[in-house]
Design a protein that fits this description.
The structure is a single chain. The protein is mainly α and about 130 residues long. The chain has a domain of about 80 residues. About 45% of the residues lie in helices and about 10% in strands. It is built from 6 helices and 2 strands, in the order ββαααααα. It has a two-stranded antiparallel ribbon with strand order 1-2. α2 packs across α3. The relative contact order is 0.12. The mean pLDDT is about 75.
Length: about 130
């Protein structure tokens, strides 16, 4: 039996995609307009966890300043500050990120600018309550 003469009960499905290496791992890229599944952005979830951990460490008095905490964590104070901004996200946005299927946003998109106003956040991210 050759590829040109399929068995009557066989369904053949052709899915165009490309495998690309990115950061030492392979990713599948599908053409524009193709259905894509949303998956958990583990980087974003880790960043949220770190943000709340660091916030708790500052609020508890374990560290007096962001600079002290950054020194302890071995990171730049500017990075720590950017990650801490994630604690200003509206609760429903955080929940959507953790559910992973209701929101498609990356850690980098959130780090670049988070408005303090939750209504503005929701409008910016295409969510309404």
């Amino acid at each position: 039996m050759s590829r040109a003469t399929p068995i009557a009960e066989t369904v053949t499905l052709h899915v165009p995609f490309r495998l690309m290496k990115r950061g030492g791992r392979k990713e599948m890229h599908v053409p524009d307009g193709a259905a894509r599944s949303q998956r958990t952005d583990s980087t974003l979830i880790k960043a949220l966890a770190r943000a709340y951990r660091w916030k708790q460490m500052l609020e508890s008095g374990d560290f007096a300043t962001i600079a002290d905490l950054a020194r302890h964590e071995g990171i730049a104070p500017s990075y720590l500050t950017r990650i801490l901004r994630l604690t200003f996200l509206a609760p429903d946005i955080i929940e959507a990120v953790l559910e992973a299927h209701t929101m498609s946003i990356t850690a980098e998109e959130l780090r670049t600018g988070i408005d303090d106003d939750w209504d503005v956040q929701r409008r910016t991210m295409g969510r309404s309550q």
